From TrEMBL:
Range within the parent protein: 126 to 643 of 643
Positions of the Glycoside hydrolase family 20 catalytic domain: 147-494
E.C. designation(s): 3.2.1.52
Family according to the record: Belongs to the glycosyl hydrolase 20 family.
Keywords: Glycosidase, Hydrolase
Name of the protein in its database record: beta-N-acetylhexosaminidase
Length: 518
């Protein structure tokens, strides 16, 4: 059976520490070997953060590797004593391997969680590939994250992912020490979050087959398929993420990418607008919410009330990508608004007006705005608190930082997981950004050419998985793994610790999550 997600392991390069940990820890100085039959047990009197982390990580390992011997236990095993060390910053930890115990220090719960994941990965590697990896007898590991934003994005609009799939995906993110999950909740094809008071949205757009707005998608059944999330579904996801240290960033993609919204809620359209006068990149006609229609703002008020009620994240992502040049130019209401505000009618100044108003609405609700990089067009946003996700190419982030924005780098040619993994004739995936080999994903160095004065504006990195081409459930795992772990190593590990050959030798030990249904 070929293993399409993972690559066959290669030999650990000479001189690499014999520990199976991804992302690579900052400093590893270890010696000797301990027995690998016993699991880790927590010493009595552990700090409260450590106790919580122990129960989270042992449950996580149990879910990820249900068919294997437990890595964490409760009775006899390798004793882990814990110590609070306030000098260790956010997420950092140290592990010392002593004759009688393993001492784990951290400054907070996330540090304990990271340290325990590292131990779990070491024990698992030492059991499964005993001739290469060890659970050491002595020595120490000290480690801390490189970036605060270590993210993964998933498009649940073009395909529906049941809650089980989302939860499994979060588990895999946590094992990679990733801490942000950006969930793209709507697009031209569907709207996936129930908004109280607007039932037509999900009733008319969230299912394919028997749907009068969109035809069945290639590869999906002709009968009704798909779905949407209730507020309680998303609250449960937030809680699952919170236990694992993963913040959920909800994205409502506006004003563009709203074809199905405007079809389901025709009261949001300007009645004087031509029926089809522009098409978006993905060829959807008239798909931008109109800033000059009052109902747009009533609707968005309810959407943001719903989002802030469910998601505690500091940032709410408001999309802003790919508004088609030409949008609003034949809407009499938008023309009048453009004339009044700017003395001209132009798509991107109207877009900037739209997004600043959204930013204001979010501030009134105590939140900051995040957007894709096009949010900077036409005058952009107030930079205060605004986070931009740069996706077009690896060099686009720097100019955004120079304008004063906080930036997350997600360049398509390195981190878009819907792009094919290689040029092999059979390789599935999109091709508009070339191919993204494991090496392309691994070698990307964020902020390499940024002046030091801008470095604080680099929040971190993330992968993006767009779902247009993911109608077949098997594609999900094939596209996500192992490239997501390559990004994780850049997100977490110091750049001088990166070593592709070492990573390549270990990646098959990382967990994979699969889609349960199409
Ligand atoms: C661009 S990246 C898009 C998505 C597509 C993706 C396909 C971005 C913000 N917008 O709408 O799904 O390319 O790779």
């Amino acid at each position: 059976e070929p293993n399409w997600e993972k690559l066959e392991p290669t030999a650990l390069p000479e001189g690499a520490a014999p520990v199976s940990v991804i992302p690579a820890p900052l400093d590893v100085q270890v010696d000797g070997r301990r027995d690998t039959t016993a699991p880790f047990v927590l010493a009595a009197g552990a700090t409260p953060g450590a106790q919580k982390a122990f129960s989270v990580v042992s449950a996580l390992a149990g879910r990820l590797f249900p068919d294997e011997e437990a890595l964490f236990g409760h009775d006899a095993g390798h004793l882990v004593t814990t110590m609070a060390d306030p000098d260790l910053g956010d997420g950092a930890y140290t592990i010392t391997f002593n004759a009688d115990d393993i001492a784990l220090s951290a400054g907070d719960e996330s540090g304990f969680r990271h340290g325990l994941i590292t131990l779990g990965q070491m024990l698992r590697g030492a059991r499964l590939r005993a001739d290469e990896f060890t659970l050491p007898a002595s020595g120490a590991i000290s480690d801390r994250p490189r970036f605060g934003w270590r993210g993964a994005h998933l498009d649940v609009a073009r395909q529906f992912y049941p809650m089980q799939d989302l939860n499994d995906f979060l588990d895999c993110l946590a094992w990679n020490k990733l801490n942000h999950f950006h969930i793209h909740l709507n697009d031209d094809e569907a709207w996936r979050l129930e908004i109280p008071g607007w039932p037509a949205l999900t009733e008319r757009t969230a299912f394919r087959g028997g749907n009068e707005i969109l035809p069945p998608l290639l590869g999906t059944p002709a009968e009704r398929s798909g779905g949407f999330y209730t507020g309680d579904d998303m609250r449960a996801l937030v809680a699952h993420g919170a236990g694992l240290g993963i913040e959920i960033i909800p994205e409502i993609d506006i004003p563009g990418h709203c074809y199905c919204v405007l079809r389901a809620l025709p009261q949001l359209c300007d009645p004087g607008e031509n029926r089809i006068y522009y098409r978006s990149v993905q060829y959807f006609p008239n798909n931008a919410l109109n800033p000059a229609v009052d109902a747009t703002w009533t609707f968005l008020g309810d959407v943001f009330d719903t989002l802030v009620d469910i998601f505690p994240a500091r940032c709410i992502h408001a999309g802003a990508d790919e508004v088609a040049e030409g949008a609003w130019l034949e809407s009499p209401l938008a023309r009048a608004l453009g004339e009044k505000l700017f003395g001209k009618v132009e798509t991107f100044s109207l877009q900037s007006y739209f997004l600043k108003r959204v930013q204001e609405m979010l501030r009134e609700r105590g939140r900051d705005i995040a957007v894709w990089e096009e949010g900077a067009l036409g005058g952009g946003l107030d930079v205060d608190g605004a986070l931009l996700v740069a996706w077009k190419e690896s060099k686009s982030g720097r100019a955004l930082a120079e304008q004063g924005y906080q930036v997350v780098l997600a360049p398509a040619e390195h981190y878009y997981l819907d792009i094919a993994r290689s040029t092999e004739w059979w390789e599935p995936g999109a091709s508009w950004a070339g191919t993204v080999t494991l090496r392309d994903a691994y070698d990307y160095e964020p902020g390499g050419d940024w002046p030091d004065a801008l470095k604080d504006q680099l929040a971190g990195v993330q992968t993006c998985l767009w779902s247009e081409n993911l109608a077949t459930p098997g594609l999900f795992a094939h596209l996500v793994y192992p490239r997501i772990s390559a990004m994780a190593e850049t997100a977490w590990s110091a750049s001088e610790r990166k070593d592709f050959d070492r990573f390549r030798a270990i990646q098959d030990l990382m967990p994979v999550s699969h889609r349960t249904v199409s």
